[in-house]
Amino acid sequence: MGCFCAVPEEFYCEVLLLDESKLTLTTQQQGIKKSTKGSIVLDHVFRHINLVEIDYFGLRYCDRSHQTYWLDPAKTLAEHKELINTGPPYTLYFGIKFYAEDPCKLKEEITRYQFFLQVKQDVLQGRLPCPVNIAAQLGAYAIQSELGDYDPYKHTAGYVSEYRFVPDQKEELEEAIERIHKTLM
């Protein structure tokens, strides 16, 4: 009869990405163990996303009291005691650690897209306050990105209400987003 206890070096982790998809990292699939350095885990995530401009990004985790920490690339996973005490399974959150001073200087489309997803998430969760007029403009760009240019045959009244952009989203904001979306090409 075998032992049902977890092997101490075994590691099973879900990384929640900015597009709301999950990347599973395990000892069996990627060879990641508790003795693996954080930089190796980051490299797996960067390769999965095809990210080249990596200096802006990192992985966060929460301890049992919901305090947030950044994964230190120089430390092993076992050295992140607050992480190890939460699992298994473990959860990491991919995100922007440093914003670019001038986003126009970002070279890669995928980097700009990850920045867009982070800002969208931060506005939606209320971490980044946003005046209504700016929220309407950003929402219209997000709708255009998702649905393309406005088409009266496809986009009937109220189509924006299927999407969330800000906490406590109001109908007035949705109408403003629709008006602006009609002007974008």
UniProtKB/TrEMBL annotation:
Q: Which terms in the GO cellular component ontology are assigned?
A: cytoskeleton
The places in or outside the cell where this protein is found are:
Cytoplasm, Cytoskeleton
Residue ranges of the TM segments: none
Read off the Pfam families from this record.
Answer: FERM_M, FERM_N
**Domain FERM: from-to ranges:** 11-185
State the UniProt keywords alphabetically.
Cytoplasm, Cytoskeleton
Q: Which SMART domains match?
A: B41
Supply the name of the protein. Band 4.1-like protein 4A
